[in-house]
Amino acid sequence: MDRRTAIQNLALVIGGAVLLPHCTKSSPTAHFKHFDITFDQQTLITDMAETIIPKTNTPGATDLNLYGFVMKMMDECAKKEDQTAFMKGLGEFDSVTKKMFNKTFADCSKKEREDVLKSFEKTDNGYSKDLQAFYQGVKGLTVFGYTESKYFMTKEIVYELVPGRYNAWYPVKNGKAVAKNG
User: Fold this and answer.
1) Which residues are registered as beta bridge partners of 173?
2) Peptide bond just before 163 cis, omega within 30 deg
3) pTM strictly above 0.85
4) Residues whose CB falls within 8 Å of the CB of residue 7, separated by 6 or more in sequence, listed in order
5) Exposed, middle or buried by CB within 10 Å (0-12, 13-18, 19+), for 57?
6) Cα→Cα distances 9→4, 17, 130, Å
């Protein structure tokens, strides 16, 4: 065996030894600039977004990858205090579903998930400020991401540049334009 092959094999073994502990973690983590999210937290946010905008005859939040939009906006556009409140609320969220249904949000049925999210809409719901900030952040960014998505802008709302479409036919009577009714 020549020296070059031995060095390549050694580098491969060392690289594998370094990567192996990261590959065997039970809960993979997504790393953002300002915080890290576990796989369970990713699932929670994805499930919340899908509950807010479910798939019907139109794409839902999962189809449009609104989880990625929520996390990108929270990571890059939110203030540090808002990010901190969001992460604290994310940590507290499953306690709400465990209190209401004795299971995690991921294990809840569609109706139970809707009930959990509706409980945040009630005034005086007793939830902490951080928990409320987390819910409002996910809901607001999910709706914002949906209304700004390519699908929504091209299929639901047909965008026309200002001043809009030119309509050459318009009724005229005695040299004056006549307004159409209806």
Assistant:
1) 176
2) yes
3) no
4) none
5) exposed
6) 9, 12, 51
Q: Are 50 and 60 in contact (CB under 8 A)?
A: yes
- Domain ranges across the chain: 34-177
DSSP assigned state of 63: T
Q: Which token pair is 137?
A: 């952040």
The CA distance from 53 to 37, in Å, is 22
* Cα–Cα distance measured from residue 46 to residue 20, given in angstroms and rounded to the nearest whole number: 28
Structure tokens at 35: 């915080």
Q: Are 45 and 71 in contact (CB under 8 A)?
A: yes
User: 154: which DSSP letter?
Assistant: I
Mean pLDDT by 10 residues, the chain (182 residues): 74 70 66 90 95 95 95 94 95 91 93 94 90 96 95 84 74 66 52
